[in-house]
Amino acid sequence: MTKANTSSIPTKKDRKIPEKWQSSVKAMKAVQVAFDMDEKIQLSIRKQALDAGLSPSDQIRDILGLPINKRPKRPRLTVSLALSDYELLAEKYGLEAKQQLDIKRKLMEELIESVSLSDNK
Fold first, then answer.
1. What's the distance, CA 78 to chain centroid?
2. Rounded to an integer, what distance in angstroms lies between the CA atom of residue 30 and that of residue 61?
3. pLDDT (tens digit, 9 = 90+) per residue, 70-89?
4. How many Cβ atoms sit within 10 Å of the Cβ of residue 6?
5. H or E element: which one contains 9?
6. Residue 69, SS3 per DSSP
7. Rounded Cα gap, residues 81 and 79, in angstroms
8. DSSP letters for 73-94
9. Is the pTM of this model over 0.85?
10. Which residues are within 8 A (CB) of 67 and not within 5 positions of it... i.e. 6 or more apart?
11. C-alpha torsion sign, points 72, 73, 76, 80
12. SS3 assignment, position 43
């Protein structure tokens, strides 16, 4: 029996983190902490964050006296859509589920209209 040549297999110590990922090293080592607390307290923190233009996470950091990351350059609202959601929305808008960009445009129009209608009440 011959011994396999393992000298070319990189070990953990040998592996280098790509330069473009270096700024993410601290974030990779961070641990997310979840808080189970009364809904009224959670809602209050969320409202404070909204009023301050912060994420709930940044609001918690502010309350705890921790440094806050600068605001994102492009704050956005997000929603996760499954294929079944695209199928429902395609039917609603008279499109095909594969027309995801057109569906996104229709969603944005509907959201803007919804906000406009609620602001006019």
1. 7
2. 14
3. 766 566 788 999 999 999 99
4. 7
5. none
6. coil
7. 6
8. SS--------HHHHHHHHHHHT
9. no
10. 61
11. negative
12. helix
